[in-house]
TrEMBL record:
Organism: Phenylobacterium kunshanense
N6-(pyridoxal phosphate)lysine, modified sites: K112
Residue stretches making up the Threonine synthase N-terminal domain: 2-80
Family annotation (PROSITE patterns): DEHYDRATASE_SER_THR
Family membership noted in the UniProt record: Belongs to the threonine synthase family.
Protein name: Threonine synthase
Pfam family, one: Thr_synth_N
Top-level class of the enzyme under EC nomenclature: lyase
Pathway annotation: Amino-acid biosynthesis; L-threonine biosynthesis; L-threonine from L-aspartate: step 5/5
Keywords: Amino-acid biosynthesis, Lyase, Pyridoxal phosphate, Threonine biosynthesis
Length: 462
């Protein structure tokens, strides 16, 4: 399987290079040259199978012959054994034909674990084979850092430096990063905002000398392996609900559009996905785009669902590429224009193709709070604010047939906001309860790129 850039100016690469490379050298995103597909019989056979088995089949279709099937299966077994629920991604019914898929049973209690756990094993495997060591630099507004630290701690060929804005993430989120004891992990509390951390990250990646000296890598959701890993739960949940005999709808709390795009990938691979509802908070760029056809940045507002406080959705470029019939010149033109002007108009044919699958719904803060309360009252389920945005969106759309809401974080990850809304303080699940007692280890640094780059170099070379 070869991977091509959405902008068409970079050579095609194999799966392992697409995984390690992240962004293509022409600024585009990698997508497979052709979408692998499963037959109806193969999809039907996924029903009730172990999650790791389905994951190995789906990821195997993307890896082709670059990773031996038995090794991939062993990596999937190990990755999903870290989840505290035997189903890995269990379904909970919340109404007639309405289900929640709980994606938060991984080690850091957020859906990012689902992809990060397998990504870490792929990295260590590929780097080990190449006799190479990399340093992952990551800027987090909360969940990505914890998922990356949990996934990569103890990895032989990877070091991780996780930067977070001091005082601006929840204590639970911070402790998932700072209580790791392994020496390949370093955490940095940066004096400044998340935007400052991102600017430092960008500076570090543009520093060729540093990049080469420490073999710098990134694990954000532009990495295609993360998308591929996220398409797996679309297959397992739809198969459990009767696909391919029945079409299934999904409602997805969205920020960078990685998770919702993974549903589109599953559709292209043959899964009968009927509609994907893209649920956003007041940072509604995606919701506006699917209704108006104009993709335009707005000001970023702080909300109760901070992992979705994003006003330009990196993975949207992949959908654009697909819906303009994979025309790379047009995709490059559009996203260069977006980078310059902050807004583009979607061509009518592409918009119609998007609207045939996606509906966007934006949900405000009051409705998010009310939905946490009503869901608890009506079903007994305590949901986190990100999931609440999606449950609220479900009530704004008319959908036929089975519908799955993706639940992206455990309520205990946002205990204060959930307690304030519902009056119930969510408890940390078994296994993470000791988080509050474990010693923390992190360095405090000024929000200055040169200082942080020197820190990264010293850590990588130690
Ligand atoms: C990252 C995240 C999201 C958004 O997912 P995207 O793939 O960026 O759209 C939603 N909810 C939670 C809890 C997250 O951590």
């Amino acid at each position: 399987m070869r991977y091509v850039s959405t902008r068409g100016e970079a050579p095609s690469v194999g799966f392992t290079d697409a995984v390690l490379g992240g962004l293509a050298p022409d600024g585009g995103l990698y997508v497979p040259e052709i979408w692998p597909t499963f037959t109806r019989e193969e999809i039907a056979a996924f029903a009730g199978r172990p999650y790791a088995e389905v994951a190995a089949k789906v990821l195997g279709a993307f890896a082709g012959d670059e990773i031996p099937a038995a090794e991939l299966r062993a990596m999937c077994d190990e990755a999903y054994a870290t989840f505290s629920h035997a189903a890995v991604v269990p379904l909970v019914q919340i109404g007639p034909e309405q289900f929640i898929a709980e994606l938060f049973h991984g080690p850091s209690l957020a859906f990012k674990d689902v992809a990060m756990q397998i990504l870490a094993r792929l990295y260590d495997h590929i780097l080990g084979r190449q006799g190479r060591q990399q340093t992952i630099l990551c800027a987090t507004s909360g969940d990505t850092g914890g998922a990356a630290v949990e996934a990569f701690r103890g990895a032989k060929n990877v070091r991780v430096v996780a930067m977070f804005p001091e005082g601006r993430i929840s204590e639970v989120q911070r402790r998932f990063m700072t209580t790791a004891e392994e020496k390949n992990i370093a955490c940095v509390a940066v004096k400044g905002t998340f935007d400052d951390c991102q600017a430092i990250l960008k500076d570090a990646f543009q520093d060729k000398a540093l990049r080469q000296a420490v073999d710098l890598a990134a694990v954000n959701s532009i990495n295609f392996a993360r998308i591929a890993a996220q398409s797996v739960y679309y297959f397992t949940t739809a198969a459990a609900l009767g696909a391919p005999g029945r079409e299934v709808n999904f409602v997805v709390p969205s920020g960078n559009f990685g998770d919702a795009f993974a549903g589109y990938v599953a559709l292209r691979m043959g899964l009968p996905v009927k509609r994907i509802v893209v649920a956003t908070n007041s940072n509604d760029i995606l919701a506006r785009t699917f209704s108006t056809g104009r993709y335009a940045r707005g000001a970023v507002l702080a909300t109760l669902s901070p992992a979705m406080d994003i006003q330009s959705a990196s993975n949207f470029e992949r959908l654009y590429f697909e819906t303009v019939q994979r025309e790379p010149t047009e995709t490059a033109r559009a996203f260069e224009a977006f980078a310059r002007a902050g807004a583009i108009d979607i061509p009518p044919g592409a918009l119609a193709a998007m609207q045939s699958v996606f509906t966007g719904v934006a949900i405000g803060e009051d409705e998010t709070v009310r939905t946490i309360v009503s869901t608890l009252n009506e079903t007994g389920e305590l949901i986190d604010p990100h999931t609440a945005v999606a449950v609220a969106a479900l009530r704004h759309v008319d959908l036929d047939g089975p519908t799955v809401v993706l639940s992206t974080a455990h309520p205990a990850k946002f205990p204060e906001d959930v307690a304030k809304a519902s009056g119930v303080t969510p408890a940390l699940p078994r296994g993470t309860a000791s988080l509050a007692d474990r010693p923390e280890r992190f360095d405090r640094l000024p929000g200055d790129a040169e200082t942080i780059k020197a820190y990264v170099r010293a850590f990588a070379e130690a």
